[in-house]
Design brief:
This is Spore coat U domain-containing protein. Residues 1-24 form the signal peptide. The protein has one helix spanning 2-21, and strands at 41-43, 64-74, 79-84, 97-101, 104-111, 128-131, 136-145, 163-166. By secondary structure, the chain is mostly beta strands. It has one domain (41-166): Sandwich (Immunoglobulin-like). The strands form 2 sheets. It has a 5-stranded antiparallel β-sheet, with no helix packed on it. The chain is rod-shaped, with a radius of gyration of 37 Å.
Length: 167
């Protein structure tokens, strides 16, 4: 009986040893997952609007105000600034823009603020600064047709402004 017990124990030990060495082999590897988000800004022309001072019977001693919007989308955290050039009116400057029409020119100005005291131009502090949020941001352009002589002829007067965003 002792022999039978010893054989049984020996068989059990051999079986246990074989079970422990029958495990599967493994190997591991690491890999990176990444994306590079670059700074980016763009204007959304579909959401921007022209600056329209409307229909006036004549220019007088009163200024005529209007607004327009620029819509810009920049990568979150990206600093930007927007400049507005002098326009296409002959002899126009950032501070004295001119719409041209059949009777000459109509002077106007563009501003950064509601009170129309901060000129919006294309250099230095005359630009509008901001920081991107990752979503569309609406920037208001404040315009004013300056009081002018009443001798301007009837007709449509226009100018084209180029907005440039630097980021």
């Amino acid at each position: 009986m002792n022999l039978f017990k010893n054989t049984l124990i020996a068989t059990a030990l051999v079986a246990a040893g074989l079970a422990g060495t029958a495990s599967a082999a493994t190997d591991t590897r690491n890999f990176q997952v990444k994306i590079n988000i670059t700074e980016s800004c763009l204007f959304s022309t579909s959401a921007s609007s022209d600056l329209d001072f409307g229909n006036k019977a004549r220019l007088s001693a009163n200024d005529v105000d209007s607004t327009s919007t620029l819509v810009v989308t920049c990568t979150n955290g990206t600093p930007y600034n927007i400049g507005l050039n002098a326009g296409t009116g002959s002899g126009a400057t950032d501070t004295a823009r001119k719409m041209t029409g059949p009777g000459g020119t109509v002077p106007y100005s563009l501003y950064k603020n509601t009170g129309r005291t901060q000129n919006w131009g294309d250099t230095g502090t005359n630009r509008v600064a901001g920081t991107g949020s990752g979503s569309a941001q609406t920037i208001t352009v404040y315009g004013r047709v300056l009081s002018a002589d009443t001798g301007v002829s009837a007709g449509t007067y226009t100018d084209t402004i180029t907005a440039t965003i630097t980021y």
